[in-house]
Amino acid sequence: MAKVTPKGSTTIPVAVREKFKIGSGDSLLFIDKDGELVVKKA
Length: 42
Description:
Blueprint: H1 14-19, E1 28-33, E2 36-41
Antiparallel strand pairs: 1-2
């Protein structure tokens, strides 16, 4: 679980970053799929 800061930022948990090989500077896509939020590496 992650919280959104007042500026709209959030931290992706280390386990998730490691599993999906997300690193500093990587771009992410935020997609609305049938009312659910889907996050994908760009």
